[in-house]
Amino acid sequence: MAKLTTRARKAIPKSDFALPDKRSKSGGKGGYPIEDKAHARNALARVSEFGTPAQKAEVRAKVEKKYPGMGDGKKKGAERDRGRRSDKREGRR
Length: 93
Hints:
Elements: H1 6-11, E1 17-19, E2 31-33, H2 37-50, H3 53-66, H4 77-81, H5 87-90
Antiparallel strand pairs: 1-2
Helix pairs in contact: 2-3
């Protein structure tokens, strides 16, 4: 994931934030940028760590809408199987 500078963050449209009104009081544009898949994954991780249940649900819904299959918590295919040995290789060591 590329480092997001202040200038680049300000250039992101409000629609590319999962919680666009999160920082409106402090003058910021929003919370949890999701302009690409890497930032969307990071938003899911950060909101699960720091967000309220309502924020978690909203971020998951927005990520799922923009990147179908990413916000549902289910890993797919190779990502799910990464790190596991196949049955055929189990016998070999």
